[in-house]
Automatic annotation (TrEMBL):
It is a multi-pass membrane protein. Coiled coil: none annotated. It comes from Filimonas lacunae. The lineage of its organism: Bacteria, Pseudomonadati, Bacteroidota, Chitinophagia, Chitinophagales. This is Concentrative nucleoside transporter, CNT family. The keyword Glycoprotein does not apply. GO terms for cellular component: plasma membrane.
């Protein structure tokens, strides 16, 4: 029954994309089928082929170690702070206590520093280029949108556009939407590591699921974007993938310093968003509860209740087991309307509990992406700085990109749910 639900979910997701298409006659069905096929192959390799599954498990364990390495740096800075230790006693932060702001900040800073080092030596660019060439060959998309979507699986949503900066001004609107959609559907490496470690702290093995989600999101975003906005113009990079490998850093020390600085800015932005959004949610919940009590003193109306009802059909169609549908619906609503950090926090601290392994797999992939309203504003501002002449196009495509990024994540999650 779950697989039938999932098949219905795939049809529903593609149907919604088709409904919003601006030129249904120009949809490239070869691209759509090859993209979905690529998603299926990625999921099959990860979940059904033991050597590949073993590799991803090891990669996930390696990601968990990054948090321990980051703690070495954080311990020097926060070593005198008293925290609750894992065994419940009170002791020095160095002894293993967890403080969300400290641990998350340190992890993001370390990952950004490592990415900067890889970028300086050209490793990041070459990895992205190789994968992009493969996706370009299979799906027959343009080089620019292939590079952008693959890069989004490794770096942030604006940083991915930096890699295709020379092409931004001349990209078609369809390419621009595909690029924006990929950045919203994927998740940056630093944030992915944070979510994996949040799951590990709660006894949840999320790392393989999250890596798979980010890899599946790249072709998935292209599939949805090319249904919503089919290509009708001539691309400057059709059939070719060329990436500038030159480093902007003077040396390794310069790379580490810039990477750490960028990581700190991202971490502070995450902390500020969490404080602001969670506080606003508390205000809204208070108002909603008051409204609910006007009609029934026992009715505690909250934002989670609203999300649970509104996204219930979506969660069911994705193949989520019946006992988890309401919780998954709530998390889907939190991710889209607020941000994915809040959704992952509630998933890992089990304030919104997901019991079944299948439900956990589906929701982990579905909320693993930047597709929310605040990210759209960040993209328009960030990409607009790189290509000022495209700011109007970016603003017009913003909500379409949000739809495409969201549907792409849902498509990946649904396919993964069908295959397990």
């Amino acid at each position: 029954m779950g697989r039938l639900q999932g098949i219905f979910g795939v049809i529903l997701i593609l149907g919604v994309a088709y409904l919003f298409s601006n030129n249904k006659k120009k949809i490239n069905y070869r691209l759509v089928l090859s993209g979905i096929g690529l998603q299926v192959i990625i999921a099959l390799l990860v979940f059904k082929v033991p050597p590949v599954a073993w590799f991803f498990q090891k990669l996930g364990h390696g990601m968990q170690k990054i948090e321990h390495f980051a703690r070495e740096g954080a311990s020097f800075v926060y070593g005198g702070i008293v925290t609750t230790q894992p065994d419940g006693t009170v002791g020095n932060y160095i002894g293993g206590g967890f403080v969300f702001a400290f641990n998350v900040t340190a992890t993001i800073i370390l990952v950004c520093a490592l990415v900067a080092i890889f970028y300086h030596f050209g490793i990041m660019q070459r990895v992205v280029a190789v994968i992009a060439r493969a996706m370009n060959f299979i799906m027959r998309v343009s080089g620019a949108e292939a590079l952008s979507n693959v890069a989004s699986a490794f770096v942030g949503q604006v940083e991915a556009q930096v890699m295709i900066r020379p092409y931004l001004q001349g990209m078609t609107k369809s390419e621009l939407l595909a690029s924006m959609s990929g950045s919203l559907a994927c998740i940056a490496g630093g944030i992915l590591v944070v979510y994996a470690n949040m799951g590990a702290a709660a006894g949840l093995d999320l790392a393989p699921k999250l890596i798979t989600a980010s890899l599946m999101a790249a072709p998935g975003a292209l599939v949805i974007a090319k249904i919503v906005f089919p290509e009708t113009e001539e691309s400057q990079t059709l059939g070719k993938v060329k990436l500038e490998v030159k480093s902007n850093y003077t040396n390794v020390i310069d790379a580490v310093s810039h990477g750490a600085s960028d990581g700190f800015k991202i971490a502070m932005n995450v902390i500020a968003m969490l404080i602001g959004f969670i506080a606003v949610i508390a205000v809204l919940d208070s108002v909603l509860t008051w409204v609910g009590h006007l009609f029934n003193p026992n009715f505690n109306l909250t934002l989670n209740w609203v999300f649970g009802k509104f996204f219930y059909p979506v969660a069911w169609a994705m193949g989520v087991p019946q006992g988890d549908v309401s919780s998954v619906a709530t998390l889907l609503g939190q991710k889209l309307s607020i941000n994915e950090f809040v959704a992952f926090q509630h998933l890992t601290d089990k304030s919104v509990p997901v019991i079944s392994e299948k439900g956990l797999l589906i929701v982990s992939i579905a909320i693993c992406g930047f597709a929310n309203f605040s990210s759209v504003g960040m993209q328009i501002g960030g990409i607009g700085e790189l290509a000022p002449g495209r700011r109007t196009d970016l603003a017009k495509l913003g909500l379409k990109a949000l739809l495409c990024g969201t549907l792409a994540s849902y498509l990946s999650a649904t396919i993964a749910g069908i295959l397990i």
